[in-house]
Every structure is written in structure tokens, then in C-alpha cells.
TrEMBL record, chains A, B, C, D:
Keywords, ordered alphabetically: DNA-binding
DNA-binding region as annotated in the record: 28-47
PROSITE patterns documented for this protein: HTH_TETR_2
UniProt xrefs under InterPro entries: Homeodomain-like_sf, HTH-type_TetR-like_transc_reg, HTH_TetR, Tet_transcr_reg_TetR-rel_C_sf, Tscrpt_reg_YsiA_C
Protein's recorded name: TetR/AcrR family transcriptional regulator
Organism of derivation: Neobacillus notoginsengisoli
Limits of the HTH tetR-type domain: 5-65
UniProt cross-references to SUPFAM superfamilies, sorted A to Z: Homeodomain-like (SSF46689), Tetracyclin repressor-like, C-terminal domain (SSF48498)
Gene Ontology molecular function: any one: DNA-binding transcription factor activity
Pfam families: TetR_C_4 (PF08359), TetR_N (PF00440)
Length: 204, 204, 204, 204
DNA sequence: GATGAATGAGCGTTCATTCAT
DNA sequence: GATGAATGAACGCTCATTCAT
């Protein structure tokens, strides 16, 4: 429907740009409209209100990302490989799109509780992907059979999230994607992976 | 100093109460003043501006917490024990003070970038405590000698933080402190601790 | 002429329906268009602007009413009979068409001064009918020969109008048309009619 | 309380001036504030919102008027005299305060249904005064013993209201107060007063 | 004639901060 | 030191109207 219209994505991309450049609280609707090259009122033909722009932004960008990860992961055999791919894709996506990184890691978190709860709904899709990897790893013996999946997932997501946030707070001074292998190793150990055997070559 | 006057802490505690009950965006200066039992203008005799209240809040509460941890940790011998104490104290402090937990984990993160950067300054003290534990663990052979301290610290802090946030988002439905041992184990593994041997009794 | 096209009346009737159901301030052009089953832009092929719809609405509905009254009155002999017919027709028309009653008595009065002045132009036709009745009554001796026609007309119109408005504000709880005879009697007295003699049968 | 502060009446008077000069829809809060010589925000120390200004305006001005009428009327003996005083005071008040006349007769009626209903609440006090006069007149034999008080009140109020509105629509071209005696006479007749006897001298 | 997507001006209200008392 | 009345900048959203198709 409306999502097929070019202006829909145009406005979302304008929102990312404006928020990344000026911060969440400086992202007035009129500024987003100007950046998108449309009139203020046009925004409201595609979005219910300002909050709807931000939720849609997150849904579109994160949704696309989750789908990509999902299909890429399908091609890997071991849970360890899948986890590495997830971490690495996550880091690469944000490295390649620093505006989006700032928006999702810092700016959007300044929103009110309701918006943040909706963002969390979207994130659940991502957390499910992690859970699948963990479950598979437990079942095929890669990970400890006593692993608490919920807590392990919190470790994985928390570590990735904190790593990205720190990188941004340090103004992207170093190469985020270069950390993938080390982080992967930390997390694998955390999951009780049989450290020496599966890791071959470049990962360690 | 102004900090020695009773009204200083009175205002900070009022801020915690007001933010915990009504959320960051409902925490108007006049409401904090009413809760503290002072006039609006009085706030500005003790704090430069509203942001200053929130930074001071974080400094006072987190500062006290870091000092406590630091002195408690001094009594423990191994890095593993210190880490367990840190995790457990962290979880217990927030379990025992849910208002403060909501304020620091959710509400204060809605503030703008500048405020969050100052909050990060305060957090650095906490991160240093973690770094000390990790360094000690590496030096005395408890942890892997190739451990990247910065990334391990991000894993530890990120995992703790995500665990607390998830607990709050689930409206404290379960016992946070009960997770200490399991989280500790995950993180120890992550750090390459010689899993089986050192953990005795209740940790595993 | 444009007025001859079917969509002209279709839009006016849609306007009455929309205003009656949702009130003046909720009667957006796009809503009227939807109710009329035409596109927004089509409205502007038949009406200069929104105000023009409302004026035309009043002209059409009130104009029709005045013509009806005029021809009906012609069949009556005395001024008193004509006045009764006028009051009774007025009450019946609005009783039978409550949507229109709400629109003309309440909603349209929320319009701005210019629109209300144009509505008054239309009303002048109605006031002229009243004036004719009064003049005839004075001339044939039914009414006081000192009667001030302008003021008597204001009394008649003001009384009818206030009676209808009160009826609507009371949510049509009682039968408006049942008041015709009593109101007629009050107004006849006001006009100095020789009370006892001319009123025969049902009027008193 | 707040009503005792001088700024309360200052803002109400500013509202009358601004609405009278520019019309209801041009009466922005900021314009009223400027006219009152206060900051926009100050308005909200004395009034809940814009609507509250207008209701208060009506309550203050009409409330004062009703009290005045009530006490003046107490000094008159007959219902006829009381009615004359009421009409004459009504006309004089609005003649002496043409801005207020425009505001209450034309502009305030453009407000939405809720505001108009609150205005009607205030008006009920005025209608009660009329009802008292009518009841007294019926009881002491001045008026017809079959007089329907509700309808007679609608005639009296409707006639006065229509007379004032016509005067304003004619841009105050003639002397409104000069009509008091004639209107009084019309209404007395309407009420079935024994025409010849009670009216002495100046009334007719 | 008919459409409907796009336009953009306009405004009530909040609240951090000041300063005369 | 303490007060609290006053300030005024800032912004999301609606809807009558246009015009390219």
C-alpha cells in the first residue's frame, strides 16, 4: 500500500539523516520534511504521527537486517559459525551505515517509554534468531548442555550492544568489524563451547 | 560546600522518587521541588540547572555504589570471587532499590547526548573496577593470557546491563539476584577461566 | 447552470448529514466529499469554497421553505390565521427534519461573521413574510394600529427562534409542533390583537 | 483566590477587547496576552486553557449583570415594572459596552458545542429571574392566569435577544435603549396584562 | 468533467529559568 | 538563604485548496 510509494522510504531516510546529524530532540517534523523534500503535511499522508515515523524507521531498517541475517545464517552448518556471522554482520551493517548506528544505538533510546517498548517488539525478532542459534548449539553438542538460553542470549546481545555503543561513543575511532572474531571467541567460551576443536583458521 | 547542606540530598532523593513514579518526561523541576518540599527557585541555589540535578543524582548514587564494591572486593582473593561479588552486589543493589533501578536503567537514558556522556564519565569508575579484576585474573593465571581486557569488560558490563534491563522490562517478575551465579559462570567461561577447577560450591 | 447538475444537491445534502452527525467543526470538506460520493476536488467544481457550500445549503433549504410558506399563507384570510400557519409550518418543518434543525439552529451559528451575515441575507426573505402579515393585520384592524412592525417582527422571529433552540438543547424531548397554538396566542396578544373575538376553536 | 489578583480581570478585559475588534477566530491566546500586557504563559497561571478564559469572561460579566438586575428589581412592586427594568437594564448594559455586546451576542456563539453549553448554564440564572417575574405576575393577577411560564420566558428572552442582535447587525445605527418601552409593551400584551390600567405615563 | 495526492500556513500550551521581594 | 509569580521560546498536527493527470 502506502509503503510502496517512494515517499515512504524517502521520509524514513530523511529521518535517519536528520536525527543522526542533529539528535533526537532536534529532529522536528518540519526538518525531516525539508530533508525529504516534501511538505510538512505530506508526512501525515504516510505516517500517523511523529512517533510512527520513528517506529517505522526501526521496523524497516531492523526488519530488513533480521531477514538478511536469517537467510545468510541458513547457509552455515555449526552454531559457532552462525554466531560469528551474526556478530560480524551486525558490526558490518552499522560500520557501513554510521548514521543509522547513531540513531538506533543512541538517539532512539531517548524516546519515551511507549516508543521504546515498540522498538523492543521489533528487537524480539532479533533475539529469536539468537535463541535459535543457542538451541541448535545445545542440541548438537557444541555448547554446554546446561546452558541457560535466556541468560546466554542476554550475554550475547548485551555484549554486542555494549561494544557498538562504546565504539560510537568513541566516535568510530577504531574498526568495529575487526572485533568480530575476538568477541565471537569470548561469547563462545561463555557458552561453554569446546574451545580448541571447532575454531579453525582465522577466527582465533 | 553546598553538597553538605541537607537540601542537596533532599532534592536528589526527590528527583529519584519523582522520576521513578512518573518517568523522565514527567519529572518537571517544579514537581521535584514540591516533592523535596522546597520552592522552585531553591533548586537553583543547589544545582546549576535541571541537567545538573540528574548528573549529581547519578554521581551520588553510583559513586556510593562504586566505593562500596571497591571496599568489599578488597576482601576477596581470586578474580573469580571478585567478579561474583561485583555481579551479585550490582543485582542486589538494584533489587533492593527498584525506584533507583528504573531511573538509572530506563528513565535517565532518555536524556540527551550531553547528559549521557557525563553519565558515562561516572560509569568509567565502575568500568575501571572491572578492568582491575580482569587484569588481576590475567596476571594470576585465572583467565586466558590472551584475554582482550577492553572487550571482556564490554562483555561483562553489557551482559550485566542487559540482564538488569530485561528484568525491569519484565516488571521484576523474577528474582534478579538469583541469576548471579549463572551469569558469573557464563562470564567466567567467556574470560577463559579454567572452568572446572576453581568453581567450588555455590557458584556453579 | 451548475445548480442543475445532480451532484450539486448531492453535496449539499451530504453537508447537512455530516454537520448534523458530527458538528460544524468536524465537517471537513473531505468528509462531505466522501459522504457525497465524490472526490475532494469535485466539490470545487460546484462551489467556490467551503463557505459557499454552507451558504448554498441555507439558501436552498430556507429558500424552499419560504416559498412553501408564502404559497400556503396566500390561502388564508386573516393575519392571525397566517401567523398561526407560519409558526406551525416552521415548527413542523424542523420537527420533521431534525438533522436540518440542528444544522440551522446550532451548528451553522458557529460560522464566522461573514457567513452569518450572508445567512442573514437569506433570512430577510423570511422576515419580509412576517412583515407582510403584520402590515396586513394593522391595516385590516386585527392588530393595534400603533404596532411597531420592526419590533413586532423581532418579537415573533425571536420567540420562534428561541423556542426551537430550547427544544433542540433539550434534545427534542417534547413535541415542538404542539406548542404552535400557545406561542401563537402569546404573539397575537403581543401584537394587540382583540384577543377574545377572532380566536375560534382550536387556537385558544 | 486567583480571582482576586488584578491580572485575572486584566486578561478577561483584554479578551473582550481582542474578540470585539478581531472576531472570535482571530482571538489567539498570544494576542490576548499582548493586549493584557502579560506573557503568554501568564495566561495559564489564571486560566486552565483558552476555553476557560471565554467561560470565565461570560461568567464574570453576565454574573455581575444578573446580580445587579436582581437587586434593582427587588425595589419594584409590580411584575410589569420589574419587566421594564429588566429590559431597560439589559439594553443599557449592552449600549454602554458595545464591545461586550458584540462578544456575547455574536462572537461567543461561534464557539463549539461544549463551550456553548457552559454559557447556557450561566444564562440559566438570567432565565430564572425572568421566571420569577412571570410567576409573580401570574399570582398577583397582573398576567393571564393561563400563562405558560416556560413559553412566555422564551418569548421574552427571544425577543430581547433578537432585538439586540438586530441592533448589532445594523452596526448600532439607532438607540437601543429607546426601544425598551415599546418592547415592554409588546411583551406585556403577550403575557396577557390588563393593558389599559397598569401602564401609566412613560411606559407606553 | 473528475480525481486525490500534495501543499503549507497557523496556534494552544508547557516548563526551565529568573529575579524582585 | 528562600520564595514563587512571571516569563516566552518552541513545535506537532490539521485541513481547505490546488493542479497535474
Amino acid at each position: 500500500m502506502k509503503k510502496s510509494r517512494p515517499k515512504y522510504m524517502q521520509i524514513i531516510d530523511a529521518a535517519v539523516t536528520v536525527i543522526a546529524e542533529n539528535g533526537y530532540h532536534q529532529a522536528q517534523v518540519s526538518r525531516i520534511a525539508r530533508e525529504a523534500g516534501v511538505a510538512d503535511g505530506t508526512i501525515y499522508l504516510y505516517f500517523k504521527n511523529k512517533e510512527d515515523i520513528l517506529i517505522s524507521l526501526f521496523e524497516e531498517k531492523m526488519g530488513t537486517f533480521i531477514e538478511k541475517i536469517d537467510s545468510m545464517i541458513a547457509g552455515k552448518e555449526t552454531a559457532a559459525e552462525k554466531l560469528l556471522l551474526l556478530i560480524d554482520s551486525h558490526f558490518r551493517m552499522l560500520s557501513d551505515n554510521r548514521g543509522l548506528a547513531v540513531v538506533t544505538q543512541l538517539e532512539l533510546r531517548q524516546s519515551n517509554k511507549e516508543l521504546r517498548q515498540k522498538i523492543n517488539e521489533v528487537l524480539k525478532g532479533y533475539l529469536k534468531v539468537i535463541d535459535h542459534i543457542l538451541l541448535e548449539g545445545k542440541q548438537n553438542g557444541e555448547f554446554s548442555e546446561t546452558l541457560d538460553i535466556r541468560l546466554a542470549r542476554q550475554m550475547i546481545f548485551g555484549t554486542i550492544d555494549e561494544t557498538v555503543t562504546t565504539w560510537i561513543m568513541n566516535e568510530h575511532k577504531y574498526d568495529l568489524a575487526a572485533l568480530s572474531a575476538t568477541i565471537h571467541n569470548l561469547l563462545l567460551n561463555g557458552c561453554g563451547a569446546h574451545a580448541a576443536r571447532p575454531s579453525i583458521g582465522k577466527i582465533e
